[in-house]
Design brief:
The structure is a homodimer. By secondary structure, chain A is an alpha/beta fold. Chain A contains 12 helices and 12 strands. The radius of gyration of chain A is 22 Å and the shape is globular. The two termini of chain A are about 30 Å apart. The relative contact order of chain A is 0.09.
């Protein structure tokens, strides 16, 4: 039988999800407040049909952050497993507050915006954050995880609060900084027209994100206000310190800071080829809430990528076995950390 | 007769200049404090010979900023026209203080560093700043300009002080900001290993420059201290304002700022194809110093690209005719501004 999904919101991300699902045999129904955009998504092959699907098993909510909660509540009420793609998670997850809602955030985008930029390969190699909580139904989590993994995405589990604090540092504040640098350069260019002709590759790279449509950012800034303000405070202090180093001509300290940044940049993780040597960690799961969230977010804290995850339920009750596939080299770290929390994991090499 | 040049310093830029010169028929002699590096440049075809050339007409000084003045003084004393490629200009130009020294700064680089990254096409389409002053010999300027133009570079004339103020905004401070963002993210990653896995394309773009060798930056920060401190102060204030907008949830002001940045980023000038319709501005040059600097930096201030420049000297004295080739659409602006300064330009369309 064909699996059926719904996509609510058919912009770049929603339509790319539609295309990716349909490539993998799903029947996809979708809609958008902007009916022309939904029609275009249908025309481009991202949807089988425009409208509602009462039989959809899985709903992706791909609308602006401020509109997610309403759509997600509607979809969970209809009985589906529901996930979203919003850039801020804690307010959304708290507001929806349902075991079958799994907060999500694919860290993917495109220079080409809107439905016409949709691409079924948009998520290949991208990090896709999922934010399980103690309330999350492990089966809902495992289903969402399994589907987005078929898109080629690498899933990272974080608590909603961790997600918001981390993206403030690695996405929101860098974006606002790029816009600020661009606005300052543009102001100075009013005094001297040649300024922007001096903008070489480095400046172009740094300000590229500022060329995107700003429409989503006021929402993000409001929804993730505290984390963004905290990260901006840290950045302002760090730049003021940098200013003092330059002013004092402290070559050694400047060099140390730049060396540290270089080393970190060079070592940024890149989507790796699948290692041959994976291992399986099997974990008897007690009948207590929050195990899924605890285990998956623990792996993220340890820097361990969960390559695959499966939940084998016992026939008789809510307990069962959680199966994690990780790089063989990281099994001992994971096993140790789990054992320290009272779990009894067993490890098995694959192939 | 073959033109002869010297290249002092055979790193990425010096060796790329050597390759570009030799492709155009020059005989190139070069040297480096690091003898192995000079030998490697020779091996890669960037030099005809390692050592000194007493008959060199033109010397490119491509050593670190703090070492330029000594090398440049040595080369002008030997009778050559001399230019450099340093990222800071006012201290260098002041320190050398010779009519045959023309400060220069090609805005080009490469992911691949050092002599092995050398590429004769490195400057194609790149902006190459030259910094004539009232002291500069117009013939020296025209010669340097003509040669780097054959490399495919677009020359922008600025005073040394203008150059330093503008690159602080468009290069030095963005670079220090990229390093600061990367260092902050790296610190936070010590608390949470997953952070850097959330670093999507935008963050990677913004921090790319931080992956370069930091060796040249302490010098640049010291030599261009005042302009960098001023630009960092401006940035810190702008980010503190941004922080307040986020804290107050001022969506409208955030959107305005982001829209302004977007518009500026989208309109960043890109190296354009040569327009068919160029025009020539002929300017009788009175016998007074600084005309060359005044005219060329005026064009830059007007945002006008000088496509070609020639100096036709009268046989009898220092006076003559300065010939500028500009886009036909900009001739009226240039002519008006020149007339306002007491020049008597004439304009002629080019076939």
């Amino acid at each position: 039988m064909t699996s059926r999904a719904e996509v609510v919101g058919t912009g770049l991300i929603g339509s790319s999800i539609g295309l990716a699902l349909r490539e993998r045999g799903w029947h996809v129904t979708g809609r958008d407040l902007d009916e022309a955009r939904a029609a275009r998504a249908h025309e481009l092959g991202a949807l089988d049909a425009v409208g509602h699907d009462p039989d959809a098993e899985l709903t992706f909510v791909a609308v602006p952050v401020s509109a997610i909660a309403v759509e997600a509540r509607r979809a969970v009420a209809a009985g589906a497993i529901v996930t979203d793609v919003g850039g801020v998670k804690a307010p959304v997850v708290t507001s929806v507050g349902h075991p079958r809602f799994v907060g999500g955030h694919p860290m993917a985008g495109s220079e080409q915006e809107g439905v016409d930029g949709a691409d079924p390969a948009l998520f290949t190699g991208a990090t896709w954050v999922l934010t399980p909580t103690v309330e999350t139904d492990p089966r809902a989590y495992a289903r969402v995880r399994s589907v987005v993994t078929t898109f080629g995405a690498d899933v990272v589990a974080l608590t909603p609060e961790q997600h918001d604090a981390l993206v403030a540092v690695v996405s929101h504040v860098p974006h606002l900084t790029a816009a600020t640098l661009m606005a300052l350069a543009s102001e100075r260019a009013e005094e001297h027209a040649a300024l922007l002709r001096l903008a070489a590759g480095g400046f172009r790279d740094m300000t590229r994100v500022a060329s995107g449509h700003p429409g989503i950012w006021p929402d993000i800034c409001v929804e993730n206000r505290d984390a963004i303000v905290a990260a901006l405070d840290t950045l302002v202090h760090a730049l003021a310190d940098m200013r003092d180093l330059v002013s004092e001509g402290d070559r050694a300290a400047l060099l140390r800071l730049l060396e540290r940044a270089r080393s970190a940049r060079v070592n940024l993780p890149t989507p790796a080829a699948r290692p041959e040597d994976l291992a399986e960690i099997r974990l008897p799961v007690p009948d207590r809430p929050g195990v899924l969230a605890e285990v998956t977010t623990l792996a993220s804290e340890l820097g361990v990528n969960i390559e695959d995850l499966e939940i084998a339920h016992s026939a008789e009750g809510p307990g069962g076995v959680l199966v994690l596939v990780v790089e063989a080299s990281s099994t001992e770290r994971v096993r140790g950390a789990l054992a320290a929390r009272g779990y009894r994991p067993s490890v098995r090499a694959l192939a």
